[in-house]
Amino acid sequence: MTKLIDQINNNLKNAKENSILQFNKEISQIEDLIPLTLGEPDFNTPDHIKAAAIAAINNNESHYSNPRGIMPLRQAVSKFLADKYDLHYDAETQIITTSGVTEGIYDTLATILNPGDNVIIPSPTFPMYQDDVAINGANAVAVDTSADGFILTPDKLETTLTALDGKAKAVIINTPGNPTGVAYTAEQLEALAKVIEQHNLFCISDEIYSELTYDQKHVSIAKFIPENTILLNGMSKSHAMTGWRVGFILGPADLIDRINVVHQFAVTCVTDNSQFAALEGLQNGPDDGLKMKEKYIVRRDILRDGLQAAGFESPQPGGAFYIFAKIPAQFNQDDFEFARELAFKAKVGVIPGSSFGKGGEGYIRLSYAASKDNIEHVVERIKTFVANN
């Protein structure tokens, strides 16, 4: 008799757990390890946001809400994006509140993809994109950007489309990016937008790190091609609210209508008190993330300068809180083996670069969402490790 496990969805049979979480778990029991592994702010959620959630509970805000989210929150999202990035979305018809951007990614792909569709994904990037594409029976087409400063160029996109004979459904952009911290400029996005519009592609733009853009003002590709863009953003990084699970999908009204169907099937609606907490964050703490950003910049510079002194080259992070460093030539270029050696010998936890795709082979990702003291200790440990090997 055939085992039941052998009869599950074929798209899931070869799916694996998140390699970032797996590797973090593998090294987490090492004594005295300083982990720079996970992409989570080390700050607590601001007190005024926590107080708003408690008030919502006490006010019995504990019922099903509109699946798209409570209207005051959607209005606050609309105002926040207009004030910050000159993006204009109608609260009634163009916004869905989701259980984090993670749900937003899945809902969007489940809505637009048919089996066999091709989705172009710059590499290295957040691995969930390609996994969600595969779960929906489509093909993730990775484009190695390591030779282009970790930016998907218009020429590289055109070359990829030509190789696919024009048969592509969507392209995914993440700016500022995980794992590299690289942020696209307005000029780069505008040039890319022309190719996307010409080929009538969906553009899924994950901008969860938009408030953590350092050296330039954040720009969304939705400024140039709003009808092609499905914009994803949320509260996790800007307001240190990873565990509250509040994200947003924004786009053309007719497309948002369809995505909302998948959203309803998946979660019905986002937890009430989390929505009221997010509302407080956007209305009365729109610049909460800027206070955190000042500290991230200090940590970034300490870590990147220390790594460079130890022989690790990396692109200058324009946002987020990651350093994506090239393993020096004298070491094993197998990034998983190198990361294990660094963990066991130097007591420093990092994520192997190939976890983020082929474009990350030979690199390691370090998160500086950690205390300044720990960042300084890591720099000294890595310098000692390099000197002794």
TrEMBL record:
Obligatory cofactor(s): pyridoxal 5'-phosphate
EC assignment: 2.6.1.-
Record's keyword annotation contains Transferase: yes
UniProt signal peptide: none
Record keywords: Aminotransferase, Pyridoxal phosphate, Transferase
GO molecular function: transaminase activity
Domain Aminotransferase class I/classII large: 32-382
Pfam families attached to this UniProt entry: Aminotran_1_2 (PF00155)
SUPFAM superfamilies in UniProt: PLP-dependent transferases
Family statement drawn from the similarity comment of this UniProt entry: Belongs to the class-I pyridoxal-phosphate-dependent aminotransferase family.
Cross-referenced PANTHER family: AMINOTRANSFERASE, ASPARTATE AMINOTRANSFERASE
Official protein name in the record: Aminotransferase
